[in-house]
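Action item from last meeting closed. Structure (86 res):
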């Protein structure tokens, strides 16, 4: 079994993860107001810019950006239900 080479595959894993995260963000319109979805999309955009910037200098780290984005999405949803009353 060969070892995973994140230096080569990390950015591609990150792009696939960002596509999944974008789908989750857009599907949040089912329970979140428009401004909540806009906040989630803003965070997604920050993650996308981070992947774009790190793809050459830190390619292995880019695979973790969608994971962080998913945690941020969960935080926004938790804040939305707990504080903002969605």
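Sequence:
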């Amino acid at each position: 079994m060969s070892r995973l080479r994140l230096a080569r595959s990390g950015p591609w894993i990150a792009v696939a993860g960002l596509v999944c995260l974008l789908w989750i963000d857009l599907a949040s319109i089912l329970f979140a107001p428009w401004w909540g979805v806009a906040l989630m999309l803003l965070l997604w955009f920050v993650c996308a810019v981070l992947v774009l910037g790190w793809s050459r200098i830190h390619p292995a780290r880019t695979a973790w950006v969608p994971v962080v984005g998913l945690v941020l999405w969960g935080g926004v949803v938790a804040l939305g239900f707990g504080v903002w009353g969605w």
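Note appended to the action item: The first helix runs from residue 6 to 27.
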